[in-house]
Write a structure and sequence with these properties.
Length: about 200
Amino acid sequence: MDTPPTPSDFEEAYKDDPPWDIGRPQSAIVRAYESKRIRGSVLDVGCGRGDNALFLSQAGCYVWGIDIVQTAVETAQARARDLGVDARFFTLDAFELDKLDRTFDTVLDSGLFHALNPKTRDAYLDQIKHILRPGGCLVMLSFSELEPGEWGPHRVSENELRATFARGWTLLSIEPTRFELAQEPGFAHAWLSIASPKRPV
C-alpha cells in the first residue's frame, strides 16, 4: 500500500473482520512474553479488538490498550468483561499518548508502525519514549520486505528499522518472524523488533 491508511480507512475495515484481527494473540507476541521480553505494565498501541492485550492480561500483566477505532475498543472492553480480566481499553490516537498520564514497562505495537506515514514515525516513537519507564522497552511486530506483493501495509526493511532505531534508541534485538492473518495464506513475513530508549547520561 503506497498511501498510508487514514482513521476512516480503519473505521471502514472494522465494519467487517479486518485481516489483522485473528481472534487470538499473535504467536510472535506469545513467544516474546514467554521469553520475558514483555513484562510488567503493558500498553498495547493499536490494540484492535484486544487479541494480544487480553492474552497478556490473562497471563498476569497489567494491560492498557488504545486504538483510534471506537468500535474496536468497545469490542475489546466487552471481551475483557466476559473474561473477567482487568485489561483497560481507551479510544485514543497513537500520537496523543501523553493524554494517558502514566508510564509503562512495555509498549507493544503489533501492526501499527508499518501502517504509519514514514514521515511521522519519529514523532510516534517520541510519544512512546515519554511513556516508557527507565529500563522499559518497545516490542514491535511489522511486515517485512520479504513479504511479496503489494497488498496490505508498507513492508519495513531491516535496514529501515535499524536506521529508525539509531535515532535515540538502543535496538536490543531484531528477528524474522510471521505476522498471522485471518486470510490466505494465513501469515505474512515480519520482523519482531525490541528497542529501549537511550537515556541522557
